Amino acid sequence: MSVLTYTRAWSGLQEQTTTYVILPNELPQSGKLQVLWLLHGLGDNGSGFLRKTNLEVLDKYTNLAIITPEMNRSFYTNMDRGLPYWDYLTTEVIPTMRQLLPLSTARADNFVGGVSMGGFGAFKLAFSHPDWFSAVMAMSPVVDLTSLPQVMPDYQEIFSGPLPNQYLEKLAQEAPPAALKSLRTFYCIGDQDILKPQNARFVRRLQDQGTLTLDLKTGPGDHDWLYWQEMFPEMLRWLLNVRLSDGAPLKNQDE
After folding, report:
1. Which of 49, 66, 114, 128 is most deeply packed, by most CB within 10 A?
2. Is 13 exposed, middle or buried (0-12, 13-18, 19+ CB in 10 A)?
């Protein structure tokens, strides 16, 4: 595998940030790579997936490009008292990485996922642009923004007014129903996760809306990297219709 660290100044943020990239050693002679846009959680950055999981080892068998942009403590939002991170992600990072790397722009080849705050960002990106992605993967996502005062002392940097209620549910309601219905959705959360009650309410609301089909996985686990590292192979099996048993490697479904 190849691991790239791409640092540059961005006009929207007026500062430098770093994007981390995992690529197969063998790049396609023709055609483009499928790509997983992977979003980090609060208090972390894109390097966390490389430092705290075996994602680089797993990706050896998938032929995916995995891109993890640095999004600070933004909640994937244009901050009220900070920087326009949502615009930076959607109008600068994604187009620029597609210019630099052999990434497919086809909906069928683009997937978005994330953990915790990044799970919120993955849902937000998929619900806002369901025509960009064919699959979304949320691991232990933050889904209730009204809970931020308990976990984020600087939340007013993002939302200086009243915290939005049922933010993601409203985004889902505004999305084109046909595109949302065709969006494959992997959703996992551990039984010991402090966020599980709010996630259970969120799942019920989405099911009541009837516009999104969730592949929901629960089981032992907390809100931590031990659980997320355990779920990454499951997520990749689900995403690419691959298997990992008896020492058999993950294989891309197109091979």
Report:
1. 114
2. middle
